Every structure is written in C-alpha cells, then in structure tokens.
C-alpha cells in the first residue's frame, strides 16, 4: 500500500480530531492538530500582552513571530502528541475558553498563517499524515488524496465542546461555549486569508446524528480505495 495525505477540515467541534486520531492510529500515520498551533501562537500573544479581549497589537506579534517555536511530542500514555511552545508543554493552557475566545482573531493574520502553513507542509512532506484544521484541503495540501469536510449543528457542536471541558474539570457555561463556537465559525468563514470553506473535491460528512463507528467505517472505505 502507498502512503497518502488525509486533509480534514470543518467548523469548530465537529469531531474532526476524534476521527483524525482514530485514522492515524489505524493507519500508523502521523496526526497533526493544526488548531493547536494557532492556539499556541495565541497563548504566546496573551503572555506577551499583545492581545486581550479589548485590544490586539498584531504588529508586535508579527515582529515577534520568529521567537515562537512550536513542536509536537508524542505522549505514549495519552496516545497523541502534545503541543509545546518554546519547549514548554502547553497542551492544557491552549484548550481554555480564554484562548478559544481570541484564537480566531490571531488566525486572521496572514504572517501567522504563512509561518504555520510552512511548518505544516514540512511535517507532511513524506505523506502518511492526517491533518485537521480549516484550510488543510484548500491551502496546506491542495493535492491531498483524501479530503473530508465535517459539519454538525451548532448545538451538537457546543454540547460536544461543553462535555469535553466539563470532563477536564473546567468551570464552563453552555451559553458561553455556544456563543464562542458560533463566533469562531463566523470569523473563520469570513476572513480574507484562507477562509474556512469546503474544497471542491472534499467529501462532506454531517455527523450531527451519525455514530462514530459508522462514520469511521465509511471513511476507512474511502481510505482503502486510495492506498
Ligand atoms: O481546531 P480548533 O478549534 O482547535 O482551532 C482553533 C482555531 O484556530 C479555529 O477556530 C481557527 O480560528 C484557527 N485555525 C485556523 N486554521 C487551521 C486550524 C485552526 O485558522 N488550519
């Protein structure tokens, strides 16, 4: 069998990463969560006081981008790679609602996107990769052998994110999460650089009501037809 590139895009909390992790495990591929990279840059911008809920000094962030080093380290116990920002494990910090509220603003900046897209293309140059995000099938790997576009109702997505955060022991409010998911989708879909959109050759999956097992089987048969 040959190694392929699998690109998974879609709105927030549509279950992209769950499917991507399963696929990578089944195929022995690398899984890259590109949202984690945008989140890590956002965390850095927050730490340096370049961004808060009331201001965003994008010029200072852009001038500082070369000092941001991102890497993933596979955690055997967890079964997935954790995000490191300048050699510090930030896997927990990047999932907070504070980061979620600011990340889409940071992701509109072209210089940020250029840096991350370049790193993502480097990680995928030998194929055998499953990458999820918003612009993977359109910008990062326009020639990916398999492109998936995931959708689900806003309510289903907010419920999913709410449960995830509750499970981690975070104090969260459903309304706040629903608003955040909708606001991120709005910014992600309307930004000028690499807006979230389905690639012409992507296959759409609405998993509002589809079970995970059924979905995984359907996607695996698409994979098998290509390897
Ligand atoms: O995937 P996740 O929800 O963690 O992504 C967080 C945010 O990062 C998205 O809402 C989007 O603003 C940005 N993002 C992006 N391009 C990607 C991945 C994520 O703009 N490829």
TrEMBL record:
InterPro entries: Cytidylate_kin (IPR003136), Cytidylate_kinase_dom (IPR011994), P-loop_NTPase (IPR027417). This is Cytidylate kinase. Its main location: cytoplasm. The lineage of its organism: Bacteria, Pseudomonadati, Bacteroidota, Flavobacteriia, Flavobacteriales. It is found in: Cytoplasm. It is an enzyme of class 2 (transferase). CDD domains: CMPK. GO terms for biological process: nucleobase-containing small molecule interconversion; pyrimidine nucleotide metabolic process. It catalyses: CMP + ATP = CDP + ADP; dCMP + ATP = dCDP + ADP.
